[in-house]
Specification:
Radius of gyration: 17 Å
Distance between the termini: 14 Å
Oligomer: single chain
Structural class: alpha+beta
CATH topology: Maf protein
Largest sheet: 8 strands, mixed
Strand content: 15-25%
Order of helices and strands: EHEHHEEHEEEHEHH
Number of domains: 1
Number of helices: 7
Helix content: 25-40%
Length: 198
């Protein structure tokens, strides 16, 4: 059975795999995500293809050091209309982002893939769709004060697993995919690949 490595620094993704009972190590893969996204947008690439590209770049970086391991790469892009959103750099950027998303629907392009021995074995993109309610400025102020700088670690400036749930009217899609990892499809692949008992 191969060593399992998650190519991510995300605490949320680690928690999802831990709660599912997987034995793995997590290693961050530093890539210039902003540059990749900018280049993809200039070339007219689709958001889901760009999320897969970012996931692949992360996995490939880790796989070069651990070629026999099964490496899981992940990435997530938030798309609202024709705009792609990144993690906010500070609270004011989080405020602007949430104001732009307020009262609108957006899609989270949540990509995952697995590499081993330099080969891409499997890939999947989940597309959860979320609709924010028309919350007041007073609610937004209170939300930002309660959540603080932790919002800057999340695309969309919300954590659905916490107070962020109050931002929404409707959510469609696997909860784990919203958090950052399409867990059910990944577990299905791992069973097929013999990493988990089927």
């Amino acid at each position: 059975m191969p060593e399992l490595i998650l190519a991510s620094a995300s605490a949320a993704r680690r928690t999802l795999l831990e709660r599912a009972g997987l034995q793995f190590t997590a290693t961050a893969a530093a890539i210039d995500e902003a540059a990749v996204k900018q280049a993809a947008q200039r070339e007219g690439a689709a958001a889901d293809d760009t999320a897969l590209l970012l996931a692949a770049l992360k996995a490939e970086r880790i796989a070069r050091r651990h070629p026999a391991a099964l490496v899981i790469g992940c990435d997530q892009l938030l798309v609202c209309g024709d705009r792609w959103f990144d993690k906010p750099r500070d609270i004011e950027e989080a405020r602007a982002q949430l104001t732009a998303l307020r009262g609108r629907s957006h899609t989270l392009m949540t990509a995952v893939l697995c590499l081993r021995d330099g080969q891409r074995l499997w890939q999947h993109v989940a597309r959860p769709r979320l609709t924010m309610r028309g919350f007041s400025d007073a609610f937004l102020d209170a939300y930002l004060a309660a959540e603080g700088e932790g919002l800057c670690a999340t695309v969309g400036a919300y954590r659905l697993e916490g107070r962020g749930v109050h931002l929404f009217d409707a959510v469609a899609g696997e909860h784990a995919a919203i958090v950052g990892l399409p867990l059910l499809p990944l577990l299905g692949f791992l069973r097929q690949h013999g990493v988990l008992v089927g």
